[in-house]
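Entry:
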Amino acid sequence: CEDDLQVHPDEDINAGVNNIPNDEKEKIQNAYKEWEEEGSFTFNSLILCELLQILSKLSEYDYGELFIAPVDTNMITDYLKTISTPMDYGTIISKLEKGEYAPSSEEKDGEMDAMEEIVLYALKDILQVYHNCLMYNPKGGMYHRAGEVQARKRNAYYSKHIADRISPSIAAGLTK
């Protein structure tokens, strides 16, 4: 569907430093205060705010309710036989708001600072949602289609608000 490939004005987010509500900025900045000294802290904390807004919009978009909570593995008992890293929008939102994303403890050679790693891990988790859905559900089925729809809409938001603003290191990390 063409609607999945673009972000219409009525479904857009409040993007940019002057448009994100102060309480949202403060919540994320407080959650990641530990990395406040990083050179990219302010910039990347705004990207995290925008990711929260995008996840909220995706949750409201077609089939979004299917991705807001973890798969019930008591009901779908074979899920973990196929999926090793379960992920959903609600978990990502919670991790973002609680400051649970953290840079790796490995010594980096200057490629990414801590906040860039945090953005990368959040973006990878979002991609994991679709990977899991498309891997577990048979092609042609309703849930597979739901994953495709959500992935296309996520790509529209990503292209409009994130892709040209992340560092080359983050972009490269998304392809690994």
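The two ends are 29 Å apart (CA to CA).
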